[in-house]
Specification:
mainly alpha
Amino acid sequence: MRRRNFLLSMAGGTAALTTADAATAAKQPKQAQLSDRAYMAGLLQKMAEPILVNMAKGELKKAFPIEVAPTWDGRDKNVAHMEAFGRLMAGAAPWLSLPDTATPEGQVRKRLTAAAVQAYVHSVDPNSPDYLLWRGHGQALVDSAFFTNALMRASKQLWEPLDATTQKRVVEEIKGLRRVSPPYTNWLLFAAMNEAFLLMIGEDWDPMRVDLAVKKMEEWYVGDGWVADGSKFHFDYYNSYVIYPMLVEILEVLKAYDAKFNNLKPADELAKWLKRMQRYGEHLERFVSSTGTYPPIGRSLTYRTAVFQPLGLLAWRKSLPPSLAEGQVRAAITAAHKSIFTDPSNFTADGYLTIGFAGHQPTLGDRYSNNGSMYITSEGFVSLGLAEDDSYWTSPAQDWTQKKAFSNQTFPKDYAVDY
């Protein structure tokens, strides 16, 4: 067996348990079945492999078959490449940030990290076939924020190895996106994320873009852990996809670099928003049914398990609320991934993600949906930033709230909070 295919083969070739795989696994001794970590790492590898291997060679645009939703709004379809790469990297970066190990998983990480670095080189090289569509459209602001978020999450593995020319090109492209005026929605955080990245690497940054985003999120906080996306509340998962993770990580950078401007106090803001994200995480955990399904609510359903990014980030930061044990959260998130990814049609025959929720369901796509957009689902794998021997992975699996509730077990009651 070739080492590069180790995790894929462990994950049943589709990085998920097919019906046949599940039947076989059920007959095996418990210790022989796929561990939660091996399952999650195998699935993320399957997602990342075609994007990074091809882009490292400057061949992503050549290899990537673009799919758009039936309601596609007519924008340049080449936005798909930047969406696929930037969003994938944001979710994969925590995993790739781990130090090299001699384990089979460690060797896969090492190989994919090297490919990712080369992909970053191609992404900003105007002479490369895989130079991304940075200019001429507003969508680039969105996906640049995932692009820079990945560099923040794994700076030693992804940013520092880049040559000086590539680093300069990245900075130029990011600063160039200041031409895009973000609407007063979660888009404010995309602009703020880029400025936080520039602060982190010692470049000139615009504190007003950050200040505005933080103030607007406070203005839009509706209570009990939920934030409106603009002046009106939307019952969807944008608190998971963008708002909480980006806001918290921006504030982490401001605190780490002792950034002061106006009356903003980054340390106080970070503590407050982390506490609110913990509350929102409690809701996410309660959304997972006893069989691993969760409510298909709101827009951008095709972003799949990016829904669970806040729980993964809290786990990675060792900041899960006392009400949620690590083994409980891990079991719930793993079950949710299996409920989504068991259907092989989530991927094309060449291994690329398709438009859909729990399979290939293109009519669920929104007017802005292409198959590159789908790679934001990698944000559901943030907990892989914890080492293989971390207690999150080694602690015994525990029943999550709905599993307890529907099996006549005692489970905690739930009350609104006022912070």
